[in-house]
Design goal:
With 225 residues, the chain is mainly β. The protein has no helices and 17 strands.
Length: 225
């Protein structure tokens, strides 16, 4: 961010300083436009869309939560976004209704109460599944969440999983493989198990592989393919 001096008004981040309690929490590429556009979430519960084709113009900046948003995920349909964080709720939004000039507060299409804070929520490559990592020690898989309306009571699949890394380690965030294999989707997660382990699951929640070895000497908090 920059000061209020006019010399910075054309810089990305100008007039977006929320003070020392505000920071950028996560970045998600907008797959509709390759690497030209991306979303940012903040510690204050805002989501911004930045367009680098227009000198980093912020096309919208919406407050979607009263607390920090840890992750965002855009569905393959290009307009349904999932957000999750310290509010303990996974929320789904239609970003087509969002603009920086809009004074109307956005309302979620659907939501699921996790009970405790949520480390991440990501759509699978097909968009059929939404995978959440929660501090309730669960990995939840929601089916067709992008089609839901209102409260989503329970996930289709719930995996008991120790996600309590403590204050000195990065939180666990289960992530999908970007491709499918013979139509099957898979995801990976770090683990608190000993000996240290990386786990690979099928889209239906089945544990497919456990990766261990002498080179894995610490908790692999953040894993991706």
């Amino acid at each position: 961010t920059y000061s209020d001096d006019d010399i910075y008004k054309d810089k990305l981040g100008y007039d977006r300083d929320g003070g020392y309690r505000s920071w950028l929490q996560s970045l998600e590429l907008d797959h509709r436009f390759g690497s030209d556009c991306f979303f940012l979430s903040t510690s204050e519960g805002n989501v911004m869309h930045v367009d680098l084709r227009s000198k980093g113009k912020v096309t919208f900046d919406q407050t979607l939560s009263e607390r920090k948003i840890n992750s965002m995920s855009l569905h393959p349909n290009g307009y349904t976004m999932a957000t999750a964080g310290l509010s303990t709720v996974v929320q789904l939004w239609d970003i087509r209704s969002m603009s920086d000039s809009s004074k109307k507060k956005s309302k979620p299409l659907a939501w699921q109460n996790a009970g405790k804070s949520i480390n991440s929520a990501y759509f699978s490559p097909s968009g059929k599944r939404l995978l959440t990592t929660t501090m309730m020690d669960h990995l939840d898989i929601l089916e067709d969440a992008h089609l839901a309306k209102g409260l989503i009571k329970t996930p289709e699949t719930r995996i008991k999983h120790d996600n309590r890394t403590g204050r000195w380690l990065s939180t666990l965030m289960a992530r999908w493989h970007p491709a499918t294999f013979s139509g099957e989707e898979i995801f990976v997660s770090g683990s608190m198990q000993k000996p240290r382990t990386i786990e690979v699951f099928g889209g239906d929640g089945r544990l497919l592989r456990e990766i261990r070895g002498s080179a894995l000497t610490a908790v692999a908090s953040r894993c991706c393919f």
